[in-house]
Amino acid sequence: MVRPENPIKIGFCIYSSMLFTSVSLPAEMLRAGEAFAKRHLGHDFKPLRITWLANDTSPISNELGLQIYPDEAFGYLSEQDYIIVPSIWRNPRPVLRKNQSLAKALNEAWQQGSTIIGVGTGVCFLAESGLLEHHPATTHWHYAKQFKLNYPSVDLKPDFFITQSERIYTVASLNALADVIVHLISQLYGVAAAQHVQQNFSHEIRKPYEEQRFLEGDADTHPDELIASIQFWLKNNYHTEIVLSGVAEQFDLSYRTFNRRFKAATDQTAAHYLQTIRLENAKELLASSNLSIQDVAISVGFNSQGLLTRVFKQRLNQTPSEYRKIVRKKLFSQNH
Questions:
Q1: Residue 39 CB neighbour total at 10 angstroms
Q2: For the purposes of burial, counting CB atoms within 10 Å of the CB of 335, is it exposed (0-12), middle (13-18) or buried (19 or more)?
Q3: SS3 call for 162
């Protein structure tokens, strides 16, 4: 079989006592995104090459009676674009001892440019590798206390289900893993592919990935206290008519300085930030209220249904009505 040129290489670390769904779920979601993209992207489509990696190529069994046959040893991790490290049943320490080469291989892979996603107690392998030193991470809630004792130099965020630090993601649960995979599919194949996968795999209404994560260096955690105050003001006044030059004047800044400092602190313009706040609140109203689209637009500060619709199409590739229909369908499924 001739392998396609330039595939997207996804490596799954596997070992005994792993939580099987923490590899099977993301693998199936990624394949679903790939299939959608193959139908819709044309010449821009890139296939996935999924590789299973272990200590050696002996079959990996689990308590379900299933087996996975590894393709390569952990030393092949540095060839992967993305790496998923699954969660571990019960006490992770014996699994860590039996797979000591994995931590070193993960460090080498990250140095070579791989993006790594650690799941639940599988995050211990990332901690062992040294990649999480003085960086944020999360893990399964049941193991959080022990994790903090074992890895005191990791900035553990037990109240977050997702953390991101450059090319390292950690997730605390399978639902959070699914959200990260949807985010990844969006990056690889676009918003339409991500929405397709989310609609087919998620049976509940979930907040966007960006709202759930702890992002190292995130806009709201930057050191510019004045810009942070302005962000707080925007979050509390988004529904009113806002002229950003007036906001700058209110905080004793020239409009030029305001724009420069806001972009430097948050890596986005104030206009984009305000639009995002209004969009997320519009989504909440579409999901939970019977307001007309026009009333939703006015309630969140968009001023017209046409403007709200344009933003929805630009950001979400769908209209407010289409979004409401999808969300209401999920709500109905939840309640019945």
A1: 11
A2: exposed
A3: strand
Pairing of strands 8-13, 67-68: unpaired
CA distances from 65 to 9, 16, 24, 68, 295 (A): 28, 12, 15, 10, 55
pLDDT per residue as tens digits for the range 4-47: 568 999 999 999 999 999 999 999 999 999 999 999 988 789 99
Angle at 23 between CA 17 and CA 27, to 5 degrees: 165
With contact defined as beta carbons under 8 Å apart, do 151 and 132 qualify?
Answer: yes
Residue 304, Cβ neighbours under 10 Å: how many?
11
Element (H, E) at 104: helix 100-111
Instruction: Please give the torsion angle defined by the CA atoms of residues 202, 203, 209 and 211, in that order, rounded to the nearest 10 degrees.
Output: 170
Please give the Cα distance from 325 to 336 (Å, whole number).
Answer: 17
Tell me the residue type at 161: F
Beta carbons of 126 and 171 less than 8 angstroms apart: no
Q: In what order do the strands lie in the sheet with 213-215?
A: 72-73, 48-54, 8-13, 82-85, 115-119, 168-171, 162-165, 213-215
Task: Identify which of 136, 74, 84, 132 has the alpha carbon closest to the alpha carbon of residue 108.
Answer: 74
Distances (CA, A) of 118 to 131, 138, 174: 11, 9, 11
Tokens coding 143 = 């193991």
DSSP symbols for 279-293 = HHHHHHHHHH----H
Q: Which residue has the tokens 């903090």?
A: 148
CB atoms within 10 A of CB 42: 8
Q: How many CA atoms are closer than 13 Å to the CA of 236, on its beta-carbon side?
A: 7
The 10s digit of each residue's pLDDT in 73-123 is: 999 999 999 999 999 998 999 999 999 999 999 999 999 999 999 999 999
